[in-house]
User: Fold these one by one.
Assistant:
Number 1:
Amino acid sequence: MQNLLVVAPHVLVGILALALFWRTLLAAKGSRPHRRWGRRYLAALMPLLASVVPISLHLDGSNAARLVQIIYLGLVLGTAAWTAWRAVCDRESPERFRGPLFRALAMAMAASGTGLMLIGILKGDVLTVGFAVIGVIYGGAMLGELGRPPAPGWWLNWHLNGVALLFAATHASFVGLLARNLLPALAGEKMHALTQLGTIAFAYGLRQWLGDRFNRLASSTRAE
């Protein structure tokens, strides 16, 4: 009963976030409903993140490495949400987007990703290394953004970058739950790693597809 009371809020908010993500994704891009549902989705991420803390303390409170990983994933999720949101808000002002908070998040992502990767390599933990790659690549891309002039459509690229990470974060747990129920005999650490990293890989592919699609549309519009 106690486990249910701790886990149930996280599951309910997770379902709400999943529904809001797809409601936003299916709305016409740039439309008022897309922006409205997107804001609601981002708002749902705050209680979702908060609900992870009691679960971790209740189920694995003595595992310091696990708590560090959760804090790191919170940083990743928060950075993804911020870049997806601010890229649109600051589309006319790349200097404002690249302000102090962007710089701080870039350094935090790159540094924490590098540190976590070293831990994962020393422990031989593939999942930890996979999670660490996110910080290294995303933080590195943010730092690289600071060293060059804004490219055409820079804001859309960063919006899609954030959305791709949010897709992975929103869907990974549900994919894992579905896999464990469909293939209970294979449930375990290997399946957990496979579903988590597989969702991240799918999100990366989705990001590339969306980027190509929107870039082609933008090129066609400029040509006309």
Number 2:
Amino acid sequence: MFSSSVVSSSMALPAPASLPKSVLFGTDGIRGRVGDWLTPQLALQVGFWTGQVLQSACSAAKPAIVLGQDSRSSSPLLAQALIHGLRSAGVEVWSLGLCPTPAVAYLTQATEAIGGIMVSASHNPPEDNGIKIFDHQGVKLSKSLQGAIEAGIRSDSITALIPALDGETTESRADLLALYPQMLVESLGVQSLKGLRVVLDLAWGSATALSAGLFEALGATVFCLHDRPDGQRINVNCGSTHLRQVQQAVVELNADVGFAFDGDADRVLAVDHQGRAVDGDYILYLWGEHLAAANLLPAKTIVTTVMANLGFERAWQAQGGTLLRTAVGDQYVQSEMIKSGAMLGGEQSGHILCRHYGLTGDGLLTALHLAALMQARQLPLATLVDQSFQTYPQLLRNVRVEDRDKRCNWQACEPLLATIAQAEAEMGDRGRILVRASGTEPVIRVMVEAIDAGDVQHYTDRLVSAVEQHLS
């Protein structure tokens, strides 16, 4: 697909003219269609400037960066380009190979690394890929550090040369990866999952590296779907964005619970024994109750996003809790958790962050703790869900908008803004509307939530038509 010579010889930094006009960093790093503007040439620059910026931000006698990747066919080549750029900036690279994104975040803060990088497009289709960057604390980069990297990439003074490197360009550190599952097991204390029947949908991605062995080591009986790394099929009709197969398997195998991960295993959704989907709102509520009962949830505060269901919010408030909302994206949840001191946060889509164990979304950690919660309560997940709250009718539709600049600047479209304003005025306090550009996919997301399901469908259809008419 690409020439490997890009990372094996001395070359000038490619001019940034082909880059999109809008910012490179979205809500979850840099992400796009491989071969479009996301190329090995860009990865080379990202590696070089990330090395420069992180060394300035975090001094170290021997600077090193932890690097992981998912199973996509394009991941090895992008990783190779990143490695060359990083090494050219004077940074040592500790390569983990195939692993979950939260493993990179954890090992970055658990070692003396100055940062971490994950090559993955998370839940996106196989033809996409991305680059996620963490600082020395295992936290996603601040806007200022992202801006410094992007400024370097977009610089008009393209004079630096990426030198050729002789011999080995990276150090394989698969040994470090063993520390991550060790941390996950230790986080449960002495709890066992013995007797629990669990279905895992590993989405042909990063979760295939560790998941089954973890649950089995804790005593669970495990059934796996899509359990080999496959770059051509990662996320295709499986995983956390396509629950049908895991739902069917849980029922047919008489399992107690199912867990579906995305391509890089930083998010997870659950399925109860009846085959019903259990999203991040319910996971946050149940884990929040558990932590609050153990006096481990200060002020009973949970941080979530504008996508969280009103039913969740009002039920948590009825428990005496506080729900803080942010923009969509786990980086915003993370930032608010640090600012407010909250210990639990996450997204309806399954990114769950628990500061007792780290500050990044971790699908494996979340799944293990939800399973342990079921064991501790000695109740099926279905019962726990039924005893929590009732969701309000909510509909989310994605409208494909290929033009990145149109998509990122949709709020400049006056006809669309007028349609939204009119719909909000008609709904009043009977519901709410959220329209936003995805930070990870080429779509505009339209969400409508209301007490009446008929209103949800009506206003969703109207807004989707407006987006298609004025932006697509």
Number 3:
Amino acid sequence: MKCDVVVVGAGPAGSTAAKCLAENKIKTYLIEKEKFPRDKPCGGGLPIRVLNRFPYIEKFIDSISYGCYTYSPTFKYVLKFVRQRPFLANVLREDFDYKLVKISIEAGVHFKQGKSVRDVKVLSDKVVVTLDDRSKIEAKAVIGCDGIRSIVAEKTHISSKKSDICVSIVQEQRMEPEIIEKYFTDKRLISLFIKIQGIAGYGWIFPKKNHINIGVGQFESAANPISDKKNIKELYKKFIKILKEKNIIPKDFKIENIKGATLPIFPLDKTFGDRVLICGDAAGFINSITGEGIYYAMVSGELAADVIKDSFLKKDFSEEFLSKYQKLWMEDFGNDLKWLGRFNYQWGKQSERFVRLLSKDEIFAKLMIGILGGRISISKYKRKLIMRYIIASIKDIFV
């Protein structure tokens, strides 16, 4: 089989890259090991900036949240943040990812599902991708969007197995809309539980249209390997019990259909090579404070497609030419990921005090929520954030 570009992995990064390529008349194969529709363990919360940048996904949104509750570890302090404008867009990943694939197919992408990639060889004049049935695809370039255990990054020697990860467990259950409104109001207020049960991470509840998504995640990069070592499944069960005791969820909520997931924490040092680009989770594009990655996945897919399009115009697929992809994503969101990464190691430290400061200083709270929600850039607002943290700390002492 022959084509212009092979995109491996049909998540948001892969579907976006493939769609953009096909729209530019570049013959693209999109390869996916699973069969769609397939579920994806995820909270399913999208920053509003995803809709601003990719307005065509608005019809794929399940519900909108207009604020959040943020709880301290002891539940003593609670920050309630509600606004009139949308705060977070919620999706059902099974539905959302499938629709992204469908619009890429409509754009002209050749979608091959249920096919795993076994090998990727970069030659002087082409890339050869070998599938699990031993069939081969020849192309001018390959884009790896195949997640944290990226076979493309591994086989092209761009990256090996990642050690800094976030481990999470999540369940998404159907719930009657009237029950959701009873507990989370018609504004579908999300709930965040900082350092719940001592983990270096947080728990969450994302209420959707007819579903509720509950999960916990721990950033192992910020956890003490001895004192913070916990059985995350048992931790999740205790989390649900606490939520029932606090009357945050219904008493009859059942623990079932729970699923685990791992996420990368930090970007790869290098995301390009001869005839190869790496996007999304495979490149480590994740908010290392919240674990959100769909925005970075779709943007990196778009940027990768733009660079590959230029490669065809210049007839240059060299590592040197493709290196501009890294410059583009660094300018777009890389500096923010860099700064967020610096704060990752502080995850959960002094979290009780931190939520208290947020609950007492509205300006500090808005800055933090804006940064963590992706509305404002931490690299641009870091000085203002630090100054406001100092002001909030002084107020906490004297007020």
